[in-house]
Each structure stands twice: as structure tokens, then as C-alpha cells.
Predict the 3D structure of the following.
Amino acid sequence: MRSGERAPQLQAPAARQGPGPMPRALVDALDVAVTRLVTRTLPGSRQATGVGPGLELAQLRPYETGDDVRHLDPAASARTGTLHVRLHVPDRALTTWIVLDLSPSMAFGTARRLKADVAEGVALVFGRLGVRRAGGVGLIGFGVRHGPVLPPRGSKPALVALRALLDAGVAPDGHHDPEDLAAALRRAARLATQPGLVVVISDFRSQRRWERPLGALRLRHSLLAIEVSDPREAQLPAAGRLSLVDPESGVLVQVDTSRRRLRERFEQLESERRQRVAAELRRLQVDHVALSTDRDWLLELGRRLR
């Protein structure tokens, strides 16, 4: 950025719908799935000392006066004829980093909501899950010059800061750097000094050279890539001559969508692009969830993380 040039401000898209309902029961159900994901993919041991609430069994022993009756094990009690309780290894406090796409292309949507609305909902879900069990949540935004960074916080302050940033919207048209995602991932590697969970939320469009920094993050952290798309990005309708503005570059493009060969070529290129993204994430062993603006994104997220 040149001296004296001001960074572009985020703006809420005019067609913004919001993420829609997020029932507490569904969010709670995701907690177990995310815990299993972290346990399965995070390098090294994440066990805390002592016993406490958690998923991993530490000890099964006879009931003693003062034990929490909610920890009674019915199967062991019935088998032995003596009340037994289950003691678990406590979950260790985990920092969740959200790497969020704020580029202009996220303001696109032709179905239930915009891609930015789906991304907002996913960020809020992982924000809520991240502050549980004394965890912290930080955010790194990209797609706009001098992308915002929220340092890890816990409890209500983390959610308030996250909500304020999400309410600000996305970058205006024409403000885009194709290596924004790569820079954000390198920044995450510098800031996330302790192993944790990194959730990348993006449409992965017009982004380059993100594979190496993502692979470097994978060596220390549990990674989850959330790809958000819209049906019209995969298929061009036969609507005659159209004048379209590329939100990333601001360039005006005029096309004749009545040409079948053009529509077929468009679909082919988009299919190849998405296949490349999926193949690269598989190669890096990064869990990949694809969400769309025309479906219930929360239910789909739950299905993919089970």
C-alpha cells in the first residue's frame, strides 16, 4: 500500500440474509465431532493431568461417597453387582484459530443466502465451540488489505469481538490479492505458537500458492478446510448476453450465455478447479467440508464431521 493510501473498509453486502437458525442442540452435537477430529489429527499428546470431564476413560472404580452420580457406569455396575463410576481424562484447553475469507467474492449468492452468510454461521459455530472448556478463539481475516486479526480470547469477550467483525461484512469489489490466503496462513503459523485447531473458511477462488503454508500448518495443528460455494458458480444459465463484474478484480466481462459450448466450457473449468482444491487438501491430509448456499449448511456440516 502506498504512503497515505487508506485501507479499504469492510462493508455488509446489500443482499445479506445472515446464517439463519442455529439450534443449540445441533451446535452441541458438533462439539463431540470436533473433539474427536482434534484428538485424531492433532500431532503429539494432548492429554491433561488428573481426571475430569472428557471423552477418554481414565479409570473405572467402585463408587465412593461424594462421587457424582452422573458418572455411574450402568454396565459395570450391573456386571459386578457393585456401583461403579467412570473417571475421564479431562480435555485440555485448546485455542481455535479461524482463518476467514473476507474477499469480495464471498458477497455472492443466488440461493438461500450469500456465501458470506454461510461463512459467518460457520465462524460463529466454531467460536462457540472454541470457548468451551476454558478454550480461546482468535481470528485472521484475509481478502482485504491489512486483514483484521483478533488475538485469542476466552468466553464472552471472544464471541463479542468475533460478532463485531462478522457484522462488518466483506471487502468491496476490486480489492483482492491472489496470495491473500497464503499470507494469512503464514500469519497463522507465526501467531499460533501452541498446537491447536485451525479452521479455514473460504471459497478458495482466485487464490494461489496456499498449498505450502497450509501443509506447514498441518505439521503442528489440527486443520479443517470449509469450502463455501454457490450453485451458479458451477453452472452458467442460458440467459442471453450478460455484463458481469468480477468482484475480485473489478473487471467488466461481457458474455453470450446462449452459446452451449461456452456454458459447457464454463462448467468444465469450474469442475476442474474444485477437483484440484479437493485433491490438494487430500494430499495434505486436511479434513475438507464443502458447503453450499442452497442447502442447510449446519446440517451438512454436522453430517460431514461425524
